Structures are given as C-alpha cells and as structure tokens.
Backbone:
C-alpha cells in the first residue's frame, strides 16, 4: 500500500520561501518508505518545482489525494478539507486570538492538527525547530541596526558596514563578512565613548545559541552577570563582551525567605519577580531569546525605560527574537518585515517610528526570521523532521485517539484529533 503526503505552498508573505521537506527527502520518502509527495506550485519557494520533480514528486495545485499535508506557517481557513491531517506551526498553543478562527474551522471540519512546536523528547526539549536560524538572522539584523544607530549618532564603527541578513548571499557569506568586521574591531579597537560594548542574551536555548553563533565570529569575551560592573571601568581593548542570563539571573523569589528553584519558577511564576532591570544600564544591546507568556514577569517595562531613559543611555538596540507583542519586552509594539526590520520606541511619547533614527531605543522585531535564510533553515528543518514523516504519513487516523499509533514525540504534538482538542490541549477551549 502506498501513501501520499502533500507540501503546501507558503503564501503568508513574499519573504516566506521556506519548505518543511526538501526535494532530497522527497526522494528518500519515495525510495525507502513508499511515500509519494504532491507539491503545490510556488513562484517564490527556495527549491524549484523542477528539483522536486527530479526527486519523484508530482506538482499539482490539488492536494486532495494527500493523506497528510505539511506546511510551515499558518494555513488559511479556506484551504482545509474535511477529516484531513495537517502538520504546521499553528501558533495556537498560547490561545493566540488571531489564529482562533483557523482552529475553529479545523474543528468544524473534523481535522487533525500536529504542531511542530510541540514535538519534543521526554524532557520537553523540542526536536523539530527553526530556532537556531531565528537566532542567526536576528543577531545579524540586530548588529546591522546597532551599526546604523551609532552612525546616525555620528559614531563611526566597523559595525556600520554590517548588512541586513537578506542582503547576504548565504549564511557563509554573512559569517565571512562579520569575521572581517571582527578583524577591524580587533585592530582598531572600540571608540572610547562606547566602550565596553556589552551584548546581553536573555535565554540559552536554540534561539540564543544561534544568535551567539554569529556574535562569536567577532572577537568576543564572555563574562558572567556579576562581572558587568567590574568591566565597566576595567575593560579590554578590541573585544566585544557577551553575557548570557539564565532564569536565576533574571528573577528572584518574592519572599525573602525563599531560594530560587527552577522547577518552581516554571510552575509557579507568580512567586517570583524580575530583577533584570539592574543589568540594563550596562548593556549596549539586549537579545531577547526567552519563552514568555503573561504568567511570567517582564524583563523590561515601559515604565522602567521612561524613568531611566536619557539621551546618553548605553542601550542602543533590543533584538527581540521572541516577539511577544507587549510581552517580556513591553515596548515591542509590533512585528516587522525583513526589508524594514527595526523601529525606534520613544519612551516619553510611548510611540514608534520605523527605521533607526529618532529619540529612543531601537527594537528589531522581525516575526519570521528564519525565512531570511530560507535554504539553510529549510535543510536543517527537514533533517530534523524527516525521521518522523513516514510514521505520520502511514498512521491510521480513523481509530480512537488512544489507539492512534504515532511515535510518542509526535502524539504529544497532536492538538486536534477528529476536530476535537486532545486531552493535553483542553485548556485552549477558554480562548475559543
């Protein structure tokens, strides 16, 4: 018996050129697992239709014959078909209101939904993700913004030569150029009015690792949060300082009698408060790479920024890779696009102006960063997904959920089954 999957065309915006499954893996599915693939045509996809055809795919607008349909981003409600299985980033697990109509439509049609974001191992570590590439692209765009901001302020530095991610031909091209910039920093040093340049990372997961991967191409010296004050007065020449903040650095128990406990913080965040503001005045750039929802304290509030902002404030740019609107970074007012990745938040007027000019702090908030490196990110994603695809394609979705035979990592990611929320996701009802 042969099985058929579909690969949907991405059409959220002109920048979305990624795929969930590469042509090479389409060939592997056909040759090793007897799984055929139908690919919707696309004029912008990073892999051409000819590449898919050569690897055994059928190109067709109609995906009706596919048992399971794979996509990357959200799918328009008009696309869904009755009782089908869909695998994509649904952005529904926090009850995101903008995607509740889509979820309702899937429920009405009795669809099954598997969300990549919830595919995880027994320790809850995500197995299928674009996070590293979000970090990589976000760091490049943030360094570009840092250079442009300093240039606008009349401070010429090697950072002003860095380009936006989409202006590089490849990740290798970007790294080579940033390595060249790093050599200039090492030889020329940092202007005295900027030194020390300190780039802080909130979080240490896949996203943070990707961002650090780019920063580490520069001459970097890593310090701990407790060293920020010391290096303010005694810093080395020709280096950029990096500091990574973990949970215990960012929050403390509300009760003075309690000690920090990571599992307690995850489960009962209301027992903790933010202590992050103590670091902000020593940072040149802040990269926000943490998971956040409204149960958790914010890293950075509008009130704090207004109370502490002066024209001489050290912080120039916040690279908000997590992009929770008015979330951990409360003044992340909106998301941006790759060709115009930043805006300036004015803490007094509490408004934003697109670009890097004007009074305030720059926010980099591209909400779809991996699409800026579509080929590299698609290959890495497909590599992480491919081992699960045959099981997803061949599962019998007619049985009761308890009898559904899927790898445990995938079964935990089934949000809807036969149009109903599965036991682990019943909480989403309150958002519907």
Residues:
């Amino acid at each position: 018996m042969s099985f058929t999957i579909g690969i949907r065309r991405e059409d959220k915006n002109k920048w979305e050129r990624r795929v969930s499954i590469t042509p090479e893996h389409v060939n592997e599915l056909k040759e090793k697992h007897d799984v055929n693939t139908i690919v919707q045509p696309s004029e912008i996809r990073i892999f051409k239709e000819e590449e898919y055809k050569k690897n055994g795919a059928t190109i067709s607008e109609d995906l009706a014959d596919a048992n399971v349909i794979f996509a990357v981003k959200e799918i328009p409600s008009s696309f869904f078909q009755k009782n089908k299985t869909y695998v994509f980033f649904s952005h529904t697990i926090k009850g995101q209101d903008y995607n509740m109509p889509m979820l309702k439509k899937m429920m009405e049609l009795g669809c099954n939904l598997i969300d990549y974001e919830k595919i995880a191992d027994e320790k809850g570590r995500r197995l299928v993700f674009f996070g590293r590439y979000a970090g990589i692209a976000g760091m490049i765009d943030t360094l570009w913004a840092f250079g442009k901001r300093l240039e606008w302020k009349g401070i010429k530095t090697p950072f002003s030569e860095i380009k936006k991610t989409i202006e590089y031909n490849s990740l290798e091209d970007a790294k080579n150029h940033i390595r060249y910039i790093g050599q200039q920093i090492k030889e020329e040093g940092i202007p005295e009015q900027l030194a020390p340049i300190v780039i802080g990372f909130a979080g240490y997961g896949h996203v943070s690792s990707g961002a650090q991967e780019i920063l580490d191409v520069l001459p970097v010296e890593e310090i701990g949060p407790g060293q920020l004050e010391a290096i303010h007065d005694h810093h080395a020449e020709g280096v950029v300082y990096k500091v990574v903040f973990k949970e215990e650095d960012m929050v403390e128990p509300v009760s003075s009698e309690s000690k920090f406990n990571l599992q307690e913080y995850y489960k009962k965040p209301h027992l903790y408060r933010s202590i992050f503001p103590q670091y902000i005045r020593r940072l040149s750039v802040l990269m926000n790479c943490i998971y956040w929802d409204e149960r958790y304290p914010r890293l950075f509030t509008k009130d704090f920024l207004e109370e502490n902002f002066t024209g001489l404030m050290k912080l120039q740019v916040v690279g908000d890779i997590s992009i929770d609107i008015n979330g951990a970074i409360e003044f992340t007012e909106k998301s941006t696009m790759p060709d115009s990745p930043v805006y300036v938040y004015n803490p007094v007027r509490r408004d934003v102006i697109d670009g890097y000019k004007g009074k305030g702090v720059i926010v980099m908030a591209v909400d779809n960063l991996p699409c800026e490196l579509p080929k590299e990110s698609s290959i890495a994603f497909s590599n992480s997904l491919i081992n699960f695809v045959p099981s997803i394609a061949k599962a019998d979705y007619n049985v009761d959920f308890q009898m559904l035979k899927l790898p445990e990592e995938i079964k935990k990611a089934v949000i809807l089954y036969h149009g109903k929320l599965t036991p682990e996701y019943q909480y989403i009802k309150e958002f519907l």
The mean pLDDT is 95. The chain is about 30% helix and 15% strand. The two ends are 39 Å apart (CA to CA).
